[in-house]
Amino acid sequence: MAEFRVRVSTGEAFGAGTWDRISISIVGTRGETPPLPLDRFGKEFTACAEEDFEVTSPQDVGPVLLLRVHKAPPKLPRPLGPLAPDAWFCRWFQLTPPRGAPLRFPCYQWLEGSEGLVLREGAGKVPCADHHPALQQQRKEELKLRQEIYGWKTYIPGWPHCLNEDTVKHLNINIKYSLTKNTNFYLKGGSAFAELKIKGLLDRKGPWKSLKEMRKVFNFRKTPAAEYVFEHWQEDAFFASQFLNGLNPVLIRCCRCLPKNFPVTDAMVAPVLGPGTCLQAELERGSLFLVDHGILSGIRPNVVNGRPQFSAAPMTLLYQRPGCGPLLPLAIQLNQNPGSNSPIFLPTDNQWDWLLAKTWVRNAEFTVHEAITHLLHEHLLPEVFTLATLRQLPHCHPLFKLLIPHTRYTLHINTLARQLLIAPGQVVDRSTGLGIGGFSELIKRNMEQLTYSSLCLPEDIRARGVEDIPGYFYRDDGIQIWGAVECFVSEIINIYYPSDESVRVDCELQAWVWEIFSEGFLGRENSGLPSSLETQEALVKYVTMVIFNCSAKHSAVSAGQFDSCAWMPNLPPTMQLPPPTSKGQGSPEGFIATLPPVSATCDVIIALWVLSKEPGERRPLGTYPDEHFTEEAPRRSITAFQSRLAQISRDIQVRNQDLPLPYVYLDPPLIENSVSI
Question: Is residue 60 part of a domain?
Fold first, then answer.
């Protein structure tokens, strides 16, 4: 016989406790105990509690390998009746054997019904390096179970594959929103819907009467950034600055040679560059920048409220005066084919011609941002990272422990998006210029050109040639955070992978990498995404890319959606008249008639209001309340990571004090650990 002391920790969430009976079986090198009840006088397993038990094994099972957790209904009816929830959220078990130090078994999972669970001790080496038959058999069983729970499916051909569930109702409890978060989410959306409904705006399918009337929507929710947008949206400097620090700060690139289909001349830009200057000299100096929305060319527009919509594929040339001064727009062409019907618009044109041209660019920004930068890069790809992690990495794997905080709620929000945003008849379909068909085509086009290096911020910045452009806070803050994440990841990897060989032989790691390559990037070798990893250095870069895109990058392109779009003319979701084919026709009436109808404006603004701000239960980057790592070394690395992020935050806040529009989307305390909204 052998006596063990058992300590059990139950989570804090609403409903985390249970009335069900819990027992454990201890698996050792010499055998396995029968189920040992965890029972004492009174109610066990209440929320927020840590409770101690003593159990006696009828035999000596040797050094402990595994802990099997059993859950069964109580012998007597539950006090709240048969319909009361019986799920239990277990944080961890601690098992103290007759001889030896306590062993910690991290759990951090919900158990429903009579569900069982097998836990491994938290400290130790990479799981596939363990060769005990019981551990190998358990690995096979766990892998099969995980892959049954989290299956793949093709949502739209050409898109990354996604979770094989149609509604959030059927999601596994461990990937669902909590009751608190779910309630906050629907209350937030419901309050916005009710307010605009009462104002009579949601049902108006016709055009706006004036810019003044649009303030009815703008005033329903206000933020300091949204107010700034309203005050400055017509200014050239603000228009240009949004390519650096706005919602889509990833397209601007240094222009060393003008595209042949963008025939800007010296005479056109002389009023901005100054007399005697020439484009070639500015191109060679590196002071010209290009934003090309050519990926939109030829996409078939949507029909909104029974009326055909219109799209453009503009090119925008920008100028950064050497030494000082704001980035400024020089020229805009609204499609990819120059000619008499495709004028180049200039800051010296009629006020309404120029404003309309800039607004067409902003409409293109909305579409490319929402379909590619936000949906594809920062939701669909993180879903792939999440699914591969849940399917291929056991809970005791160091990479699972490192990555699981950055997957929280991602599968829930993406499943919800497929229900409420990108399904037929939903927001994208009924209120945006390209609709689901256009979004689908854009994602397919981008998937064919998406590269690994474009997902790695330092390489992306170099490839676009924007290392030195001043006032690029997305770049400055992002590089700092990338470096902090990379340092943290490097420390963790070095703890568990002492050599390149240890990376190569980790079969679970390699299966994880292969699944991301095959299911997420559809096996496209020219993407540059590795299908296997050979070195510690390659693993550090890869994991840094995953964490950065699941946290900081998503914050940068998501958190400001409402700020940028609350004043709709700054970021219109659709356009109701075709792009102008000549100059001199601009007018206030024509500008208003081109903008989205009232109902589409309200529809999109409500969605972006809900999706821009985290509705409760936030876990900022670097906070890990679930203690999956039990050893001292990774805990020290977490503390050091938090210190680096805190210093980055202090530097950002000092810088922001001198900015008329503070850039806050990459301030670490405001970055969510995962794509959860």
Answer: yes
CA distance 361 to 368: 11
Q: Return d(Cα 162, Cα 474) in angstroms, integer.
A: 29
Nearest partner of 117 among 82, 86, 92, judged by Cα? 92
pLDDT class for 79, splitting at 50, 70, 90? low
d(C-alpha 561, C-alpha 436), whole Å = 19
Token readout for 520 is 């997420």
Instruction: Report yes or no on 517 lying in a domain.
Output: no
**Phi, then psi, of 593 in degrees rounded to 5:** -65, -25
Per-residue pLDDT reduced to its tens digit, 461-514: 999 999 999 999 999 999 999 999 999 999 999 999 999 999 999 999 999 999
Please tell me the distance from the alpha carbon of residue 38 to that of residue 45, in angstroms, as a whole number: 10
C-alpha–C-alpha distance, residues 442 and 313, integer Å: 12
Mean pLDDT of 44-73: 94
CATH number of the domain within which 26 lies = 2.60.60.20
* Contact yes or no for 583/347 (Cβ under 8 A): no
Position 74 scores a pLDDT of: 85
Contact residues for 276 (Cβ-Cβ < 8 A; gap 6+) = none
What range defines the domain where residue 9 resides? Answer: 2-121
For tokens 């924007």, the residue is: 466
In a domain, 302, yes or no: no
Looking at residue 553, the DSSP 8-state letter turns out to be H
In a domain, 328, yes or no: no
Per-residue burial over 492-526, b = 16 or more CB atoms within 10 Å of its CB, e = otherwise: bbeebbeeeebbbebebbbbbbbbbbbbbbbebee
Percent helix, strand, coil in the chain (nearest 5)? 45, 15, 40
